[in-house]
Amino acid sequence: MAQPGLVLPTPSMQSQIHELAKTLPPPRVNMSYMKRSSLRQNTACDNCRSRKVKCHRIPGQEKCQHCLSKNYSCTHFVQQATSERKRNSTTARRSRNPSSVPIPLSPASSVGSSILSPITDNSIQNTSPYIMPSGPTLPLVVKYGFYPPITLDTPTRDVLSYLFAPPEDASSDPNLFNPGRSKSPYAAWGDQAVKLEDDVFKSELAFDLMEIYFQIVHSRLPLLNPTQFRNRLRTSLSSNPGTEKPLHPALVATVLAWGTKFSEHPLLIADRQCHNGQSLISKAMINRTRDLAEALKVHRIPNQDHVVIGLLVETLQSQNPDDPSAFHGFWLTAATRHLLDLQINHKSVAAQIPDTEARGTLIFAWWMACICDAYSSLYYRHKPVLDDDDYDIDFYTADPQLSSDGTAPSPREQLEFLGYYRAAHSLARTARQMSRQLWRPITDADGISFETLRTFASALRIWREKYLARVGVPKNYNAGWDFVTTVSCFASDAQYHVMWIVLFNALDEFGVKELNENDRSGSPPENVQNRGYIEDAMRRVGEEALNGALRIAALTSVLSANEYLKLDPAVVEFHIIAAGHLLARFGRPEVATCIDGLKQYSHSYEEAGEHAQDIRKTYEQVRNSGVDLNHMAALVKQIAAFPTTTTEPEILPGGHEPMSPSVLGSFQMNGMSNINGTGVLMDVDEESTAFVAAHKNEHTPSAFM
To answer: How far does the signal peptide extend, from start to end residue (predicted)?
Structure first.
């Protein structure tokens, strides 16, 4: 019965309401709920998920943009496992008779294998959040790196399993592990790589690569304690590792990846023979080292290990700034910012670090980062991270003291005592100022002002008068020199001349501001005030740059003859490239020495061979069409013809006493390096070139055999 006062609609009214409803807009959808629901969808691929980046897939493409750019296999194992878990959970809730009836997973979630073992309702309720297949077809980044993740407590043996795992393209081959297939998953790395299936062989190879690192790289970058690192690695890989915390996984990876660049192990030799002198094992190790460092947030968390790893990883990579996989300058910047966060730039903080070893490492790392940040910014045309007033820390010096067994002090102590940092830092400050002035947009548009040119030329000459005689190559040699003394002197000498080459290139590219303004206005040349002084300064820069390039070519000849460039960790790479390009633009025949040196360099740095080809093309074009210069083209014709340097210089009259073979060998294998290929070049003047060349065919150091 109808309630009193309530009027029921008549049939005609109901019909009208029905027709009105047809004209009304559809009900509003809660878009915020839809967005939240879409965000909860598990659609990211495994690689993007592990790196916590947006997974962007263009319709019609099989891979997302990240996997496409990195050439990764774009897989969705986590998504499949999660979806399957949700489906199974829903089925379990809907089941009227919760019994032990098997509920198999779909073939898609088995990832290339048959249906997994039956899973009961009870097992579904107790399952982990992700049902990850355990087969070998998982991507390497999922199998070893992130699911479950490698942490700071991961045993070193597991880290080796990740580093020495088969190539990723082999791991993603669904037919690779069929019983009837005889080909090893390591076949792409040469016929010796099958030995990597043995865990004992992996450990032995790790020890070998570690020793190569300490023989070749550590003496140039003394950032680790060799005895401590060796003992901890042996303990970690022993049958009874004990309770001591393992070495940082990314640090282990970095040291071993460095070893693959220079090792003459039969495994690495076979790998290079299969790939035109290039090592695919080394490339894979470098990529995995970088991925591991990223996963462990080495670039985000400031501590001592992460500082060391950042400085070591940077120059481990390709030194070509146009190579997108090189992350050029990224790790150097990260290490520098870590040092700032740790306040090592404050003298008061650095002095209060209680652990002597840690204090020495961090202060040494500071000066490495500080100096290399300046040189890197100048060489590769980017803004330096540090300013002159960002630190007040004193130079860390220590008198070299012989140990109780009579051995020499460490390379770090000797370099500190020799005053290397003071001279290198002085030149680095000039490099930092040049970088901030030369690579500005206004300089690109207007040119370099004459006052700026005078300032830089004067600063370089002041440094030469103040430091070159003290840290450069002297006229009289001491046969008892150790390798640190020898290398630091040769390095400081060469670094000075490379600065002139960089200044010449900028001057040729941008010109002088006063001359550019006069030319644009159409005024006569004589209207420029002090034009004669300006052109004379430009000519002198050209002379200094050409002289520096010839000196670098002479040293490259000596290093190439001894095949030491195969074992050089990017110390002289930039310098040979810069000298080679300048000599090619001048049409100088000495460019052949730089080309040969870069070809030898390509043994460990592939991009060096590409630079050699570019230099050769430039030289051939200049020989056919003339000097390849811009603003300096007219002035270089006034430069006096330099005598052609030979690749076989002879001892000058009144030659010096020869250096002992051990010191000579050590000179080639040791010294200071830099981050990001920005280290100081070991160069010589005419006397020192002749001196080293006289011994260049002597016994090769045993460490290289």
So the answer is: none
